[in-house]
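Z., the sequence and structure:
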Amino acid sequence: MFNTFKALSDPTRLKIIEMLNQKSMTAGEIAEHFDMKKPSISHHLNILSQAKLIYSEKKGQYVHYSLNTTLFQEVLRWVLTFKND
């Protein structure tokens, strides 16, 4: 779970997650929304992948990234265990 929160602690990665919540995208499509080089975007995507927050799927010559909604549901369930009654 620590990797999940560490991955979510960066504003760039949060923006990527927000974008992937709308639709699956390639690294190039994601990079168009940021003022940084593609290797930096790849680094952020790698961290999100290692935390299992996103999936990657090769389609032809492109890799498409999508949100792992199952993990987000698990994290939300865990966070809600701390709510006060």
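The longest strand covers residues 54-59. Residues 38-50 form the longest helix (13 residues).

Let me know what you think.
H.
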